[in-house]
Write a structure and sequence with these properties.
The chain has helices at 5-15, 17-20, 26-36, 69-87, 131-147; strands spanning 44-48, 55-59, 93-99, 107-113, 115-117, 123-125. The protein has 148 residues and is of the alpha+beta class. The two termini are 41 Å apart.
Length: 148
């Protein structure tokens, strides 16, 4: 990354802008943080255990979950554990990804339960979900939001 980044940036307009859109300024910070991720020269914390008296150094991470595979995996695992333990009931779920077809690919990840509770409080699973109907509802909501 460090070796070729400046070359890509210099050629972006002529080679990639027509397909992927203009160069966004926030990219520099993300890439430079990624290159420094886990490098002790760019900062670290000293970890000390009172119980066993052992210690070690932990290099700072870039915390760029959308770009750095290491930081993305950590945050993904933490978020998954949070969803499992604090948010989602122990019922069937599915993951839907709704996209808006623009050059920079905005999208939303949605976790939906595969069923619901009846008035008596009993869980009623649903074996099939109409994804086309969900797509239509999403499209309607996005257009209504943008029109407002």
């Amino acid at each position: 990354m460090a070796e070729h980044y400046e070359q890509v940036k210099q050629r972006w307009e002529e080679r990639f802008e027509s397909s992927y859109g203009r160069w966004r300024g926030l990219i520099d910070g993300v890439v430079y943080a990624f290159v420094d991720c886990g490098d002790f020269e760019h900062g670290f914390a000293r970890i000390f255990c009172d119980a066993c008296k052992s210690e070690f150094l932990l290099a700072f991470s870039c915390s760029r979950r959308g770009f750095c595979p290491s930081c993305a995996a950590k945050r993904g695992a933490m978020f998954g554990a949070f969803l499992r333990e604090e948010v989602a009931e122990e019922v069937g779920h599915c993951l839907w990804t709704f996209t808006v077809d623009l050059r920079w690919h905005p999208h939303i990840h949605a976790i939906a339960s595969r069923g619901g509770w009846d008035r008596a409080g009993a869980w009623r699973p649903v074996s099939w979900v109409d994804t086309h109907a969900a797509e239509l509802v999403f499209r309607h909501k996005v257009i209504a939001f943008l029109a407002a």
